[in-house]
Amino acid sequence: MAHGLHPWFAAQWVGIEDGNEVAQRLRVPVETMETCDFQTAMESYAPTSETLRVWITSHVPGWSHVLVLSGWTMPSAEVLSRGGRRVFEIAYTSGVEEIEPMGYTHDGVSAGDIFQADEYHDYWADLPYDDMMPPADELEQYLVIVGRITERFLDRDWFSAHGLLCTIPDPG
Predict the structure, then answer these.
(1) Domain housing 116
(2) Beta-carbon neighbour count of residue 72 at 10 Å?
(3) Domains: count for the chain
(4) Could you report the per-residue pLDDT of 6-31, keeping only the tens digit for each?
């Protein structure tokens, strides 16, 4: 994974265009949000930290991207998907060569992984799959699938974008 996202990558693609709405759904206090670029957000990249920090950016019209910088967990896909929204999740740890199946949540309900959702079959059907495929290759395939669905890949413009650096409050 490039751009300093090694050894851990966790992200969500959220069917909400406004990053502020994403932050509001996650109960992020407005006064704690910081607008910054990717490089500044990466200063908070700490895979072993327990504090849940994310960088929320616009992805394409109708979609936001949530890059998890620290916290060992994802923000609640159920909360983010309420009201008929969709959330796709990818989590990869290279040090132990582990990748979770690409998660899909719709309207507050987890549908499991994307491969159980028939409506997305065409987005992945032509990709080669081998259950012995290295996790890094599987990650690349998941990024292709979500790029096809949202009609945008994580490109140079995304890495140069500005977004909201947020600390997600502990729900406890």
Answers:
(1) 8-167
(2) 14
(3) 1
(4) 567 899 999 999 999 999 999 999 99
3 part of a folded domain? no
How far is 124 from 146, CA to CA, in rounded Å? Answer: 9
How far apart (Å, rounded) are the C-alpha atoms in residues 97 and 8? Answer: 10
Angle at 69 between CA 66 and CA 72, to 5 degrees: 100
- Which 8-state DSSP code applies to residue 168? P
Is residue 139 in some structural domain?
yes
Question: Is residue 98 in some structural domain?
Answer: yes
Among residues 6, 8, 3, 1, the alpha carbon closest in space to that of 100 is found at 8
CB–CB of 87/65 below 8 Å?
no
In this predicted model, what pLDDT tens digit does every residue of 27-78 receive, in sequence order?
999 998 999 999 999 999 887 889 999 999 999 999 999 999 998 789 999 9
